[in-house]
Amino acid sequence: MVDVQNQNDTRRIPLQKVGVRNISHPVTVLDRDHRTQHTVADLALYASLPHDYKGTHMSRFVEVFQRYAGEIRMPRFLDMLQEVRQYLDAERAFGELHFPYFMEKQAPVSRQPSLMNYRCGFSGSVSAQGRQFFVSVAVPVTTLCPCSREISSRGAHNQRGTCTVTAEVQDFFWMEDLIELIESCASAGLYTLLKRVDEKFVTEQAYDHPVFVEDLVREVTTAVEERFRFPWFCVEALNQESIHNHDAYAYVERGRPPLEKPHES
């Protein structure tokens, strides 16, 4: 059969990325408390394309991924990208994987257990210049406004926020440890199941620990630098404001700049 993708292209325009995205597929990831966890990931895989190639072989991305989906972790993820790169004779290969990750969490007073889910992701690139791997965790939290508490005689406005840490990773670590660290820096954490005694506790905890988005990213940055040794990381906080018609946002970046920063697919 005629292989159109391998035909020569004369426009002399190389493509930095070409590939597949928005593929949903079951995957198995490592779990600190239960060894492994089954979840469903959204996948994007790319490779660079030389100027003289008309197209790439899209099916080969999926073909390679299916061999690695049984267990996704840093070495295997990068090995998968290396195989994509070699299979497609590409200068570089890139990949992004985003998935819900579940942790059992006990209510603070009643100790009632329930599952919380967090949006996590892996991304990376492989080329002759090196291999890079990134992990991201997005943690929903409660934040209470310090200014509102200071000026109000009856309560203070609070809201749900999301704090996301994305880190370049060289050494193994548990995502659960990073999730718990982020929650500890917020006014309070979120829970799927709370009884009245728990609601009272969480409400008062938030009131006693007010934070702006600026406070949150600074506290998380300090805690990350004390606990982990990431070559590079960034912290983002986004508050869905409860009394304003806008969101509040803060961002900080630390460490040496990576060859290529990760981005959402």
Automatic annotation (TrEMBL):
<comment type="similarity">
    <text>Belongs to the GTP cyclohydrolase IV family.</text>
</comment>
<feature type="site" description="May be catalytically important">
    <location>
        <position position="145"/>
    </location>
</feature>
<dbReference type="GO" id="GO:0003934">
    <property type="term" value="F:GTP cyclohydrolase I activity"/>
</dbReference>
<dbReference type="InterPro" id="IPR022838">
    <property type="entry name" value="GTP_cyclohydrolase_FolE2"/>
</dbReference>
<dbReference type="Pfam" id="PF02649">
    <property type="entry name" value="GCHY-1"/>
</dbReference>
<dbReference type="InterPro" id="IPR003801">
    <property type="entry name" value="GTP_cyclohydrolase_FolE2/MptA"/>
</dbReference>
<dbReference type="GO" id="GO:0046654">
    <property type="term" value="P:tetrahydrofolate biosynthetic process"/>
</dbReference>
<protein>
    <recommendedName>
        <fullName>GTP cyclohydrolase FolE2</fullName>
        <ecNumber>3.5.4.16</ecNumber>
    </recommendedName>
</protein>
<comment type="function">
    <text>Converts GTP to 7,8-dihydroneopterin triphosphate.</text>
</comment>
<keyword id="KW-0378">Hydrolase</keyword>
<comment type="pathway">
    <text>Cofactor biosynthesis; 7,8-dihydroneopterin triphosphate biosynthesis; 7,8-dihydroneopterin triphosphate from GTP: step 1/1.</text>
</comment>
